[in-house]
Structure formats: structure tokens, C-alpha cells
Specification:
about 20% strand, binds 4'-deoxy-4'-aminopyridoxal-5'-phosphate, Adenosylmethionine-8-amino-7-oxononanoate aminotransferase, Aspartate Aminotransferase, domain 2, 14 helices, alpha/beta, PyrdxlP-dep_Trfase_major, globular
Length: about 450
């Protein structure tokens, strides 16, 4: 017999005192628990399940690969699914990102990017370039290097001092960061000056890379950079010989409309990380897309990237990634995102534009966020002691809705927001249902 909620568990759960329901099935955008309750998945878990929960094409590709070859260690062999996926991703990526380092998830992808940046400078004879610059309102993963890069104070706090030398600058966060008398151009110029000054203060010869999410996900609730921001940051990096790492683990793979979110800003990074929707929940999969300049410096130097994971380039995971690309590109799911995003945005505006506890509605494509506030006029966040995000999550589940409320870091303070990242297969009536269930929840 399966219990809806286990009475006791040997799984070391995230929330030790609060055991979750047991999920047993998936049906398109719905998840089903052991008691038969159905949940509309409005966040794809955490922006993962872009194809819903029972995509026959992806499952078929995984099964076929399992029958052929489940695993071959990359220390000895490559595999056809890995070669195919890397070739396709590099063909779709911004120009120059010709090489693809395949791993098992987002933190591994970020960790690989940080180490690629460091090793690149070693190879070209600038070993002092070790320092990373990130933004205060960011999340880049939970491994110690990625955690050090991230600016999420409450996740970092238990593990201080962290391993890497990271400096943090301001996020691009129009709702709270832009002064009332400031336009976007002036705001961008101010943020670019801050990065420029930070690099000068540290000494450019000590800085390896600047890392940022084009649209901030987990810590902020789908906050897009304002127009021109990423371009300005790219220019500052170029001025000082600093690499630009864009972390699209959450916002990439079509979530915001184009396959890569940096296409909105027409910016080409040196390293680009993706995960989550790359395996779309069917397999653990992540990738770091690497500019040929970095690849060639390592290949022409020591010839060996000093990094690796046992399950990297896993054939079954890569077969899933290839099948996800088929669904996005050949079956037209990617093309649905902009229109669906506009529909969901209209629905959210309808329900929440005048809601007293919703301060801001923002995002791009099917990556949308609501910021929850105690007072709309003053933008005062809720008292963290109220645990608003946790309550919203619980109430939403009781209403048959999976959304992604987080108590994030609002430039140093706690603040609550809800992230929505629904599967690209939803119908308009599914999107309406999200609005209604969320309205009931709030
Ligand atoms: N980077 C970003 C932008 C993320 O949102 C996340 C996960 N929320 C990660 C990295 C880490 O990914 P993972 O949980 O797969 O390790």
C-alpha cells in the first residue's frame, strides 16, 4: 500500500519535520499523488518540467537508449547521444559557443563554468585572475563554489566562510533598485559604473569572471534585466579582460521565449550554463556552453580540463536532452512560449494588478513572477517571521496548484515572491486555471 504522506521516512528530506506527499503519476501538466489528488503544475517544479510529466517522445528516446547502452564512462568512451546533443546545442547557441561540457545538473554546470574561467587564465599566463564577481540577488547552485558565487544570504549563512573569493555587486532590479527620478538608461549606467569601480578596486588582474542570470529566478521571482543592462555589463567585462558567465540554468531552454535568454539582449557570453528544462525532469542533465577561445586555450595549453564528474555526458540523459530539443524545435513547443506568456501575463494582470498584497508582476515568456508585499504603496516586504512563502506553497497545494513561492533575498532583506514557469504544453484553459487557483490561494 502506498501512503499519501509517509508516516516515517528514511529519505533525508529537505524539511525534516514536514514530510511531503508522495507523487505517483503524471498526466500532461498535472501531477498525481498517492491519494489520487491532482495538482496543476504551474511552476514545472522549479522551472524544470517544460514538457509536462508524461511526454511519450522523451520517454521513448530514454527507453531506446537504455536498451542500446545505459552508460559508458567518459574517461574511456564518448557516446552518440552525447555527441549529438553537444553538436545540436552548439549549433543553436550564440556564435562562438562551440563546445559543450555535459554534466548532471545546474550546480555542476556552474561549478564547471567557474573552474573553466579560472583554468583559462592559468593557461594564458594570468594565474592571479581568480576572483569572481556576482550579484547580491542571485542563486547559482548549492555546491560550495556555486554557493559562494550566489548572493542568497540565508542559504550562504550556515556555510560561511565560503571557499571562493567572490565580490557582490547590485542586481538589476527595476522594482526596488531604480530611483524614482531615474530612467532605464541612467539606471544601467549606474550599475555599469558600479561593476567597473568594483573591478578597479579589486584590481582587474585579480578578476576572472562576472556571473549573472539574465532573468533572476529562484531568489527574486523572474526579474528580467532592464534593456541594455547585459550589453553594458559585457562592455565593462571586455574593458578589463574579465569573462562573462551567464547562468541560464533556470531561465534558459526556451523558458523566456528564445532558446537562450541572452538572445533578448543580443549578448554573447564566454560561458553559458543550462540545466533544468534541458532534461525537462526526465533525466538529470546540465551543460556549460564554452566559447572556443576558452576551449582552445586549454586544448593548446595543458590539454586537460582539471575537472569532471562520473556521470557527465551520461548517454541516457543526453538521449533525453536530444528528445527534448526535438519537442521544442521540431514539434513547435518553443514557438508557443511567447504567445502563451502573453496570455498568462494578461491573466495575472486581471487577477492581481490591483491586489493589495501584490507589489509587482514581472518576467519574460513563460517565466513570470509576483512579488508579495505587506504594503503596495511603500513596497514594504512581509515580516519574515510570518513565513508567507511557505504558507502560500501549502495553501496552493491544498488548492491543487504547484507554484514556486520563495522567501528570497531582496537586496539583503528577506522578501516573498511567487515564481510561475508552467509547461509549454498547457492550454489556454490550463493557464486560466492557474490564475483562478492562485487567486483563491492568495
Ligand atoms: N543556477 C540557477 C540560476 C538556478 O536557478 C539553479 C537551481 N535553482 C542552479 C544554478 C542550481 O541547479 P541545480 O539545483 O540543478 O544544481
Amino acid at each position: 500500500m502506498t501512503l499519501a504522506r509517509p508516516a516515517a521516512s528514511h529519505v533525508f528530506h529537505r524539511h525534516l519535520r514536514n514530510l511531503p506527499e508522495t507523487a505517483v503519476g503524471g498526466d500532461g501538466p498535472w501531477l498525481i499523488d498517492a491519494a489520487g489528488r491532482r495538482y496543476l503544475d504551474a511552476s514545472g517544479g522549479a522551472a524544470v518540467s517544460a514538457l509536462g510529466h508524461n511526454d511519450a517522445h522523451v520517454i521513448g528516446a530514454i527507453k531506446a537508449q537504455l536498451d542500446r547502452l545505459p552508460f559508458a564512462h567518459t574517461g574511456f568512451f564518448t557516446s552518440q547521444p552525447a555527441e549529438d546533443l553537444a553538436r545540436r546545442l552548439s549549433g543553436l547557441a550564440p556564435p562562438g559557443l562551440d563546445h559543450v561540457y555535459l554534466v548532471s545538473g545546474g550546480s555542476e554546470a556552474v561549478e564547471s563554468a567557474l573552474k573553466l574561467a579560472r583554468q583559462y587564465f592559468l593557461e594564458i599566463g594570468q594565474p592571479a585572475r581568480r576572483r569572481i564577481i556576482a550579484r547580491r540577488q542571485s542563486y547559482h547552485g548549492n555546491t560550495l563554489g556555486a554557493l559562494a558565487a550566489g548572493g542568497n544570504l540565508w542559504r550562504r549563512a550556515p556555510f560561511e566562510p565560503l571557499l571562493m573569493e567572490v565580490s557582490h555587486v547590485s542586481p538589476c532590479y527595476a522594482y526596488r533598485g531604480m530611483a524614482p527620478d531615474e530612467d532605464e538608461a541612467a539606471y544601467v549606467a549606474r550599475l555599469a559604473d558600479e561593476l567597473d569601480q568594483t573591478i578597479r578596486d579589486l584590481g582587474p588582474e585579480s578578476v576572472a569572471a562576472f556571473i549573472a542570470e539574465p532573468v533572476v529566478g529562484a531568489t527574486a521571482g523572474a526579474v528580467p534585466a532592464v534593456a541594455g543592462y547585459l550589453k553594458a555589463m559585457r562592455q565593462v567585462c571586455d574593458r578589463h579582460g574579465v569573462l562573462l558567465i551567464l547562468d541560464e540554468v533556470m531561465c534558459g531552454m526556451g523558458r523566456t521565449g528564445p532558446l537562450f535568454a541572452c538572445a533578448h539582449d543580443d549578448v554573447v557570453p564566454d560561458l553559458l550554463t543550462v540545466a533544468k528544462a534541458l532534461g525537462a525532469g526526465y533525466q538529470p542533465l546540465g551543460a556549460t556552453l564554452v566559447h572556443r577561445r576558452i576551449h582552445d586555450a586549454i586544448e593548446g595549453g595543458s590539454g586537460f580540463f582539471q575537472h569532471g564528474h562520473t556521470y557527465m555526458g551520461h548517454p541516457t540523459a543526453c538521449a533525453a536532452g536530444g528528445a527534448v530539443l526535438d519537442r521544442l524545435l521540431d514539434d513547435g513547443l518553443l514557438a508557443r512560449v511567447p504567445g502563451m506568456g502573453r496570455t498568462l501575463r494578461r491573466i495575472l494582470d486581471h487577477h492581481f494588478a490591483d491586489h493589495p498584497q501584490v507589489g509587482d508582476i514581472r518576467g519574460r515568456g513563460l517565466f513570470l513572477g509576483l512579488e508579495l508585499v505587506a504594503d503596495r504603496k511603500t513596497k514594504q516586504p512581509f515580516d519574515p517571521a510570518l513565513g508567507i512563502a511557505a504558507k502560500v506553497k501549502k495553501t496552493a497545494l491544498a488548492n491543487g496548484l504547484i507554484c514556486y513561492p520563495m522567501s528570497g533575498t531582496i537586496d539583503g532583506q528577506r522578501g516573498d515572491h511567487i515564481l510561475l514557469a508552467p509547461p509549454f504544453i498547457m492550454t489556454d484553459s490550463d493557464l486560466e486555471e492557474i490564475g483562478q487557483r492562485l487567486h483563491t490561494t492568495l
